[in-house]
């Protein structure tokens, strides 16, 4: 009886083992044949893209010792730069090219003020008094913020847009337009911005006397159609730094 029961039990175990091996036999998986295994993921609704407010530019807490010669204008640059997430040193570089820090500068095309805003651009960015330094700088900073957002933080394209209008940059496939004036503008501003961002250049800045500074202030910004005079970094009698053109 005991021997018979043992034989029956052994037979059952063999049957179960054989059945189990049959069920657990080798199966095709997705590493063997393409599409052998399909994975269904839940559908995710796409969200509308948000315009990024990021930029490749560092946002300086100040102008790093640089000055326009007016503490009020310096403060306006820093405040507008912070408010619009645009490096104040970039705004400073643009202002030096556009107006040589002269509040009443006006171009033959009608651009006005420190940041040389055209009247339609000024209105577009909320400027009600184009000759007011604070509003003029804020308008220029808002325009640069718009351009940096539009061109995904590309400083060269933003500068090209500031000079020629964003439409011209878009027209040429998000490239600096083939206008000699605009290409020269981007070249000059890129060089200027690199210069004032270089700590070694600041350490080796030339020192100016009050008389030399007064003479340089009389000079106008060089038109983009004219070869640029030498631009260099100078240390003023009070110790602050300034971009000047010879």
**How do the strands line up in the largest sheet?**
1-2-3
Q: What is the radius of gyration computed over CA atoms, rounded to a whole number of angstroms?
A: 33 Å
Main pleated-sheet profile: 3 strands, mixed
- Give me the count of strands: 3
How much helical structure, as a percent, in the residues?
Answer: 40-55%
CA-CA gap between termini: 118 Å
Q: Detail the poorly predicted runs.
A: 2-57
H/E element sequence: HHHHHHHHHEHEE
What is the strand content? under 5%
Shape: globular
**Class of secondary structure makeup:** mainly alpha
Number of helices: 10
Describe this structure in words.
- The chain is mainly alpha-helical.
- The protein is 48% helix and 5% strand.
- The protein contains ten helices and three strands, in the order H-H-H-H-H-H-H-H-H-E-H-E-E.
- Strands 1-2-3 form a three-stranded mixed sheet, with helices on one face.
- Helix 2 runs parallel beside helix 5, helix 5 (133-150) packs across helix 6 (155-164) and helix 6 (155-164) crosses helix 8.
- The chain is globular, with a radius of gyration of 33 Å.
- Mean pLDDT is 75; it is low at 2-57.
